[in-house]
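Thread: Newbie trying to understand structure tokens

Hi all, I'm a second-year student working on a class project, and my supervisor (Dr. K.) asked me to get a predicted structure for one chain before our next meeting. I've only ever worked with sequences, so writing a 3D structure as a token string is new to me. If someone could post the tokens and maybe explain what I'm looking at, I'd be very grateful. Here's the chain:
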Amino acid sequence: MSNLYDLGALEAHRGINQGDFTAEEYVWSIIERIERVEGKVHAFITLNKENALNDAREIDKKIRTKEDAGSLAGVTVGIKDNISTHGLKTTCASKMLENYVPPYDATVVERLKNHGAIVIGKLNLDEFGMGSTTEYSRYGPTHNPWNLDYVPGGSSGGSGAAVSSRECAISLGSDTGGSVRCPASFCSVVGLKPTYGSVSRFGLISYANSLEQIGPICRTVEDVVTVMNAISGHDPNDNTCFLLRSNVPYLHIKKDTAPSSIAIVKELIDGCDPAVSRTIYSALDKFKEFGWESTEISLKSVNYALPSYYTIAMAEASSNLARYDNIRYGFSLPVEGFEWNTYISNVRSNFGEEVKRRILIGSYVLSSGYYSKYYLKARQLRSLLRQELLSNFGKYDLLVGPTMPVLPFRIGEKIDDPLKMYLMDVDTVLANLAGIPAISIPAGHSNGLPIGLQLMAGPFQEQKLIDAASLLENAIDIARSPEI
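---
Reply by user tm_fold:
Sure, no problem. This is what the structure looks like when written as tokens:
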């Protein structure tokens, strides 16, 4: 059977379980696809070819002997390269960790493997997850499968591009300020940022602990549901996870969805690229056709979201990245005539320019003279934003807006202007600051470039997101995979 790589996660799983083809045949199809298009897309940093084939043979053996091979048996998954994988390099797309091989799997990776998923490789990202285009990678930029001259979004650009270009069925990314949803929007796939605390962060190399969350990127909403049910739930290794599984409900696709109330956030759609706003309003008309109530609201605190987010994120980044001091692990540097400041400076030169910029800003806002002026004020604004969002979830089931305010743009177009890059996150940082779930789903295209719709719900209300996203997915036929 040809073109097995075209299959979504559940389609591949069913075919393997039913004996239509073997897991090994399916994995070979994925490998051949990667070899054919990876030179154009550059989604991967490390391939896991031999181990993936061995894992596929083990899955086939379990199926032959009637063992339970798991809900994702044989399905190929790409892992963002800031999530730890046992025996497989995890570089964070940085020279600082170019030879780091973790001695353990992140909890999410372990859970995917326990459900039969096969890790096909590690995916490109902005260095340490700091960026929105996947141009800040030591290994070069990832290209958008819809137009290879354009960015795929970031920081999980490799995760979005690999799924869209059919180099793997599903992928994992991390979302600190939109890093799952941005590439999902730019690559016309589905990306979910779960409620903070619903998915273990153990094994995720930290950027900003209070904001980041691991989430799935898939071609369909149904595949997202399957991945979330596999990876969510309490983990004793992560004290930010909720203690009871009952806090994190199992998700499912409903055949019939009762009409709900949605609110369009005025500040999120004002100032968007006209093609984006037209597409978003067109998608919202579909909800109205199904009897959903739609209201436009204004959120006062949205104007403070971006400065609050970047102050907190950079402060936490400066603290987290202080561990890279070359003492416990790192590079062989000469120690003759040792001077601490010079030595640390030499070590930190292995960071890229954007990472160094964020460390410097984070150190500044945490310094004794500016802590209360910047960092403390940002924390207070975050609390106000969360309160305002939660109060609106008492009135409406979902808040809606574009995932990204702009269309994908050319590689190199904005990289020299950090402020323009930061402003791109204006629609996505709300969910991270408030710790609520949000999903990006394909809503249309303009000049062949994808546009995503973002839905936000109250804490642990992922099912509401799934209901709405599934309804829209069935109402509009949006291409998820371009021809390359």
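A couple of things are worth pointing out once you decode it. Residues 273 and 406 are 5 Å apart (CA to CA). The chain has a mean pLDDT of 94. Feel free to ask follow-ups in this thread.
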